[in-house]
Amino acid sequence: MNRDSLDGVVSYLAEEGLKVVTAESCTAGLIASTLAEPPGCGAWLDAAFVTYSEEAKIDCLEVDEAIIDTYGLTSEEVARDMAEGALALAHANLGIATTGVAGPSAGNGEEPVGTVCIAWSFKTADGIHTFTEKLKFDGSRNEIREEATVYALENIERQHHKLRTVAGQEVTEE
Q1: Confidence (pTM)
Q2: How confident is the model at residue 164 (pLDDT cuts 50, 70, 90)?
Q3: Which terminal residue of the chain has fewer beta carbons within 10 Å of its beta carbon, N or C?
Q4: What are the boundaries of each domain within the chain?
Q5: Which ranges form a coiled coil (predicted)?
Q6: Nearest-angstrom CA–CA distance, 54 and 7
Q7: Residues 67, 75: Cα–Cα separation, whole Å
Q8: CA distance 65 to 162
Q9: What mean pLDDT do residues 142-147 have?
């Protein structure tokens, strides 16, 4: 992610009073690491979970095993559970989660390489509002991880505006 884009993201987070917790699988901490690059990152970054395995998702984030069994690890439903689970454990008001297949092979074969599901969960006065997307990125393993990271961060503002439109809510400050 280039510095100008990152500066725009962290400025938006700071202006809007958004504090992030991440729950990352296929990006393996890259979102949190990127958010930690600028000085003063404690203003917008609260915590980060890297839950690569199925067991870690269940044990650390309380992802519902039945959801994994029904929809698979690479699903919007699992991304939603990850983001909401991380948000419940942190002092944040925005949870961002990624789960997917970075490659080089499809692993269990449930989804093709490059498939990534991202969730953005916002804590508001009336509860949690989560938006998810299933995407397909191309490239090497690390290119897919980077593309997913950039997409997750660059779309915070769009998801936040969607929250305001759909829920008519302001995010609560922690």
Answers
A1: 0.94
A2: confident
A3: C
A4: 3-167
A5: none
A6: 33
A7: 9
A8: 29
A9: 98
Residue type, 102: A
The answer on pLDDT for 173 being more than 60 is no
Predicted local confidence at residue 166, as pLDDT: 73
pLDDT of residue 104: 87
Q: What are the strands of the beta sheet with 45-50, ordered from one edge?
A: 45-50, 20-24, 94-100, 115-124, 127-136
Encoded tokens for 131? 């938006």
Helices (H) then strands (E): counts for the chain: 7, 5
Whether the bond into 104 is cis, omega within 30 of 0: yes
DSSP-assigned beta bridge partners for residue 133:
118
Confidence of residue 41 (pLDDT cuts 50, 70, 90): very high
Give the span between the Cα atoms of 119 and 38, in whole angstroms.
Answer: 23
Query: How many whole angstroms separate alpha carbon 37 and alpha carbon 16?
Result: 19
Query: From residue 119, how far is each of 2, 19, 39, 105 by CA, in Å?
Result: 22, 15, 26, 23
Tokens of 44: 């917008």
Cα separation of 173 and 21, whole Å?
A: 13
User: What DSSP designation does 74 have?
Assistant: S
Q: Classify domain 3-167 at the CATH class level.
A: alpha beta
Tokens standing for 174? 């922690």
Q: Residue 78: which pLDDT band, with cuts at 50, 70 and 90? A: very high
